[in-house]
Design a protein that fits this description.
6 helices; mainly alpha; elongated
């Protein structure tokens, strides 16, 4: 606990974003339709979503959770670019973007 108190906000948020994103990827592996994960993700990526679409119905649960996890890891990677810092606005943006990864 002492290490968390001494940790810089930027470093803590990057770890938090990574763990948050990895939790979706791990959850995707435990969904009942995990065998259809790759095909479902391909359906999500190829679906013509001009309006809000529920990706749970397009690709299934495992593919949607995988999509959310991958989107979160991409957002986290953007904050790992040298000179970029994660802050409270980054937290809002990352969580909102990951949420939009489900529809």
């Amino acid at each position: 606990m002492k290490n968390l108190n001494k940790m810089h906000e930027d470093h803590f948020l990057k770890i938090f974003f990574t763990c948050f994103s990895l939790s979706f990827i791990i959850a995707a592996c435990f969904m009942p339709d995990a065998g259809d994960m790759a095909a479902g993700l391909l359906r999500i990526l190829n679906s013509p979503t001009k309006a809000a679409t529920n990706f749970f119905s397009v690709g299934g649960y495992s593919a949607t959770f995988l999509n959310m996890g991958l989107v979160g890891l991409i957002c986290t990677a953007l904050y790992c670019i040298p000179g970029r810092q994660a802050n409270n606005a980054a937290t809002l943006g990352t969580l909102l973007t990951v949420g939009f990864g489900s529809w």
